[in-house]
Amino acid sequence: MNKLDPQRILFEDNHLIAVNKNSGDLVQGDKTGDVILPDIIKDYIAVKYDKPGAVYLGVTHRLDRPTSGAVIFARTSKALTRMNKLFADHDTKKIYWAVVEGHVSQERQSLTHYLLRNPKQNKSYAHDHEVPNSKKATLHYKLLHRLDNYSLLEVNLETGRHHQIRSQLSKIGHVIKGDLKYGARRSNKDGSIHLHARFLSFIHPVRKEPVHITAPVPSHDPIWKAIEKNL
């Protein structure tokens, strides 16, 4: 079993635990059968709190496997039910950082498309107009920084559709670095894409206090390092 580095823990109390997900971590099982992040966290909780029985951990939301950043889990069934409602009602604020190919011309923009998911390809296609079975998707971005061949965008999601950020940014000609599925020029060596769940905020489901979580960018990556120096 892989061990959880305590430095990856962004928030922890009796009800919730938030972790800085590495690219490649699975939030839920897939056909690969690889170890999933919840099992790694359960092992950490069992050891830290000397729990002899089964450890409860509920998945409140998901991040794609090649994506990094803040992901939060519930340590009680009550917290899970309430967090699920917060996410369903869009009462959480999620902000992503995306490094995209090329120089984005507009410093701020709102994008609305209609996404049609292809389950066989595990891919969503963005359309300018509504098509049968499509779902409306809206995001807002602002330009934070330019590198030689890339732009760093801060993305605020208004809706939470399958592969929404990846699909919509690709549609406007600025595919996320490393995202071959959506048309990137080349892959990243580690199989990651440069999409990072940077901020997550919400009202604590039990304590009713504001929670603000910030996930450091991947420290091993030269692009992220270059960005961090300039911000």
Please supply descriptive tags for the structure shown above:
globular; eleven-stranded mixed beta sheet; 4 helices; alpha+beta
Folded structure, characterized:
- The protein has four helices and eleven strands.
- It is α+β, with helices and mostly antiparallel strands.
- Strands 1, 2, 3, 4, 5, 6, 7, 8, 9, 10 and 11 form an eleven-stranded mixed sheet that branches.
- The termini are far apart.
As residue ranges, the low-confidence spans are none
Strand tally: 11
Q: Cα-atom Rg, whole angstroms?
A: 18 Å
Spell the H/E element sequence. Answer: EEHEEHEEEEEHEEH
Beta-strand content bin = 25-35%
Describe the largest sheet: 11 strands, mixed
Alpha-carbon distance between the termini? Answer: 36 Å
Rough outline: globular
Structural class call reads alpha+beta
| Count of runs of 4 or more consecutive helical residues | 4
Mean pLDDT: 94
- Could you estimate the helical fraction of the residues in percent? 10-25%
